[in-house]
Specification:
Elements: H1 2-6, H2 10-33, E1 38-40, E2 45-47, H3 49-62, H4 67-77, H5 86-112, H6 119-137, H7 144-166, H8 172-190, H9 193-211, H10 218-223, H11 227-249, H12 257-280, H13 285-304, H14 310-335, H15 339-370
Antiparallel strand pairs: 1-2
Helix pairs in contact: 3-4, 5-7, 6-7, 7-8, 7-9, 8-9, 9-11, 9-12, 11-12, 11-13, 12-13, 12-14, 13-14, 14-15
Length: 371
């Protein structure tokens, strides 16, 4: 560098040294000062893509780097390269999509109940689809999740066909409970987050239909309030919510993010529905407070977990907002005679509740991203 400076003017030498020093400072700053944003592994700067891109743009402007050094920083970031897991992710995604489409086709085919096809043909087709799906999962590990997902859907179609054809007299919840119980066998063996998510959906539908206390069956809820089931149902949804968090601890599956989000969405939806109907339809404040407390517990658990899942956090905050606004509406309707004033107060309170919740979530996510 010194020999190069002897051949150019002093002013230009200062600019060259400043550019080299800026480049070294950027690399040092990236590796030591903001390790959560990016790191230098000897060949590339790696980290969160959007954050690295914005940081490179900022540093190029701040240190007035020329085009070659800016290009070098871009190459170090590795943002121009194809993600290493892209091909595998696309293959798995397309396989799961194919399994969903095939399984949905079987279910819709059973629902169509075409009279031109014999019972033996329908039964043989469904049994064959189930058997082939399970057998395909044995020697084909990369497509095991997709094959077993197809087997799960084929099993549901088979059970529905048997109930439809032979008139077993079973309640709808018994179909889903049997479906979940039989599918649990390969769900435990496969140790797949996606399969656990599908299994939780089936089990959740069984609980919802059994309880008859959710929005899936509001008419039965209004006509027949079964106190035993109404108090047991929220506790069953606690099991549904907690199961994905317990699976990694039991060594059944790796961290189940998809299953956790599905379980949280179902449990929070059920608690909101139960609390809403308990407060506005049945006038049971104790049941409302129980469901409100359970939704608040989900928020507390989500805040305490590391790393935080902001999707679950957002769903918990939304559920609390709905329940709080429903409770406020119930109080205003019961104790206020000024309809216009009550509606205005409820509107302002709802807007404030949602706005404060969104602001808090945004600041929480921003602070965690900057940490």
């Amino acid at each position: 560098m010194a020999a190069h400076c002897k051949r150019i003017s002093s002013h230009r030498c200062d600019k060259v040294l400043a550019a080299h020093w800026a480049f070294l400072q950027i690399t040092w700053h990236c590796t030591l000062s903001v390790p959560n944003l990016c790191r230098y592994d000897g060949g590339h700067l790696t980290g969160r893509g959007a954050g690295v891109h914005a940081t490179i743009h900022e540093w190029v402007q701040r240190f007035a780097l020329d085009a070659p050094r800016a290009q070098r920083l871009w190459q170090l970031s590795g943002l121009h390269q194809q993600p290493p897991e892209l091909k595998r992710a696309l293959e798995r995604g397309l396989a799961l999509l194919a399994a969903l489409l095939l399984g949905a086709g079987l279910i819709f085919w059973v629902a169509a109940n075409w009279q031109t096809q014999t019972r033996a043909f329908k039964l043989g087709l469904l049994e064959g689809a189930l058997l082939l799906s399970v057998l395909a999962a044995l020697p084909w590990p990369r497509a095991r999740t997709a094959a077993l997902l197809l087997a799960t859907l084929a099993l549901g179609a088979l059970l529905a066909f048997v109930g439809q054809t032979y008139q077993t007299g079973a309640d709808p919840w018994q179909l889903f409970a049997t479906w979940a119980g039989l599918a649990l066998v390969w769900t435990l063996v496969a140790r797949s987050d996606g399969l656990w998510a599908a299994w939780l959906l089936i089990a959740g539908l069984a609980i919802a239909l059994w309880s008859s206390d959710t929005l899936l069956n509001p008419l039965a809820n209004l006509l027949s309030w079964r106190s035993g089931r109404s108090w047991l149902t929220p506790l069953l949804w606690v099991v549904v919510f907690a199961l994905p968090m317990a699976l990694p601890r039991l060594g059944v599956v790796a961290p189940a993010r998809i299953a956790s989000r599905i379980a949280a969405a179902m449990a929070l939806s059920a608690w909101v529905a139960l609390g809403f109907w308990a407060l506005l339809a049945r006038d049971q404040p104790q049941m409302f407070m129980l469901n409100l407390a359970l939704a608040a517990a989900v928020l507390a658990v989500s805040l305490a977990r590391r790393p935080r899942d902001f999707v679950v956090l957002a769903m918990a905050v939304l559920a609390l907002d709905v329940l709080v606004i429903a409770g406020l509406a119930r109080v205003l309707v019961a104790h206020s005679r000024v309809e216009v004033g009550s509606a205005l107060l409820l509107t302002v309170a709802s807007a404030a509740c949602v706005g404060l919740s969104g602001t808090w979530l945004y600041r929480l996510q921003s602070s965690e991203g900057a940490a």
